[in-house]
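User: Okay, second chain of the day. Same drill as before: sequence in, structure tokens out.
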Amino acid sequence: MSMLLSKTAPSMTRRLILWLTVVMAFLWLLAVGLGLVVMEEELAEIFDGTLQDTAERLVPLAVDDLEHRSLVGASPQQLQTASSSGEREYLIYQVRDTAGRILIRSHDAPAEPFEAPLKAGLWRNDTYQFYTAANGDRSVFVQVADAFENREEALREGAMALFLPLLLLIPVCGMAIWFVVRRAVRPVGALREEIETKDGGNTEPIDATALPKELMPIAASVNRLMQRLRTALDAEREFTANSAHELRTPIAGALAQTQMLVAELVGNPHRRRADQVEASLTRLSHLAEKMLQLSRAEAGIGLADHAVDLGRVLDMVVTDFQRGMADPDRLVLRHPTGARLTAPVSEDGFAIVLRNLIENALIHGTPDKPVEVFLEDGGPVRITNGSPVMSAIELAAIRKRFGRGRTEAEGSGLGLSIVDRLLGQMNGQLILASPATGRSDGFEARIELRHL
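Assistant: Same drill. Structure tokens below.
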């Protein structure tokens, strides 16, 4: 369950990296945008200043040239055009008299007079920004024009110079943020992994010495909780062990006395009643054993702190069953040479799982067919017995607590519940199948342990 949640839940590290990168990119773009606004204002001031300087410098030159050529007061047919280098002019100008006639113009200036009035200062239309300057007696006016497209081109080039580096800068900053954030949250990941290992089989305290001070209170709280859990589990296990001893002894004593009574009542009409008492005590003993196993399973005995050899446990359980059977050949262990099964699980808990499954197979299986236990290298463990084919509904019913299938044999209906609980603690699962693997009939219980 924790693995499923870890895959579906959003990652704090991923969200932190994403949002830091987005915020950083937004701030960079905002800074560039504000820079462009300031750049536009500064460029306008620079261009307007250049217009003014150019016009004022042209006034004495134009007046001197006009006097030299005696064009002041000349007719429009004597219009002069300034020489050009052949390149596009960024600034164009016209020299006009008081009547508005063009006396001199730059090569790219229009032949028609500018729309700008003959008044010193700045003026603009949709295409140009103008600056008009006049000589001292205001007989000659110099009008210099700057096209707005020149300013827009300068602004575009400035924007490209600012934005293009961001295409490289943002990914580089994103990788730097990823590196820094991953290193910063590494202690959080280590603490998470430590907490994930804590359960009924591992209640050791977390080492908080290497954690930053922000995480130390969390580790301390988890350690206190683990201490309380460890104390509660120890008390519960001690109670279970004591209860097992206290219950088994009086039941065994009562059963022994009843069996003696049955032997003494041979031929007595009360023998039948004594047989019923013996059968009831036998069922009570079996039920008490199952209830105690279930209690131990719910106390969390499934895991161990280190890997153990479960193949050895399997051999011991099968041998123990065979010693107590009238027909030991009915239980067959198929254990290939070299097959091993190791896992960090409780030997006692795994033995309880095996005993319940083998016991169910012996009790509920077809009496004249063998019960086979298969151990493959690394798992799984398969237990098969003869039986009619069971439907999926019947297989689901027998997994429920106190659930029983189509059988006349005695039982408590707790065996598979105990197995499911213990295998859940062992990070494993029980798979029931009918027919058994490689057969057309029979029943199979398969134990699969993950992360061995």
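The chain has three domains: 13-165, 197-299, 301-449.

User: Thanks, on to the next one.
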